[in-house]
Design a protein that fits this description.
The protein is an alpha/beta fold. The chain has 11 helices and 9 strands. Strands 1, 2, 3, 4, 5, 6, 7, 8 and 9 form a 9-stranded mixed beta sheet that branches.
Amino acid sequence: MPQTPSIGVVVPTRGSPHRLRRTLDTVDAQRYPGRLRVIVVADQVPPDLGLARGGDRPLLVLANWRTPGTAGARNAGVLALDTDLVAFAAEGDLWRPGKLAAQVAALGTAELCTTAVEVRRGRRLEVRLAGTGPVGLADLLARPGGGLRASGLLARRAALLDCGLLAEDAPGHQYEGWDLLLRAARRGPLAHVDTPLVRLCRPATDARRHGYAERIAALRWMMSRHPEIASSPTGAARVYGRLACWTAATGDTEQAWRYTRAAVRRNWREPRAALALAAVAGVVRLEPVLARLHRQGRTL
């Protein structure tokens, strides 16, 4: 009988004890028969060494010694582990009972296993399914940055080290998860559990962290790293549609027109292209539209 793989869970923290405790409680509640250890990585805050423990399920606390941000913190955790598998959790997110066991069962010979998620925003709860089992490169290209998340990911540690850790140089620390999944999917399909095993808890208010220039830079960074994005009509149209809207919001109408034309050429039904056109023409203001989408649990 094959040995049950060991799992290390990496949880970055920005110093929110209540949110961190809720996440750790759902990790501790996992009925997983194999060896399980947790690493809490303090990112830009002093490490709370009082969380550390020994026993059958030890918890280690360390400071993020790599690039500040979630990617650097997760990478620091991966490098500190010696387990067969690595699971990512985000501070404040909640795991369903059986999350780890379900993903280990689904992993098979794949290197990574993703899961569907629930997104809690205030009182609103939205279930986000991929609608598929194994996830291939074409699936990830068609849904730029959406659907599948690094939070909740289960991966073979050796595969992470081989295909490359999370990128720490992404503008605004955006799209690191999508970048990692694309790189992994080049090597083979990803396993996926299309049942929401993770609840992502997000604020109900519109508190976007990134300005338009940073979001534009992040998407252009992704396209330079992954030229194959342009080969997916649906995915490329979404990317160019986002770029068109964000560029229009900065007042650069000439560039916004270019991105809009690029989106329409790939998929004339792309709604972001229509929104960008309306913004350039002065028919709508983007900020109220984005705020309304955020309240509905949706993104551009």
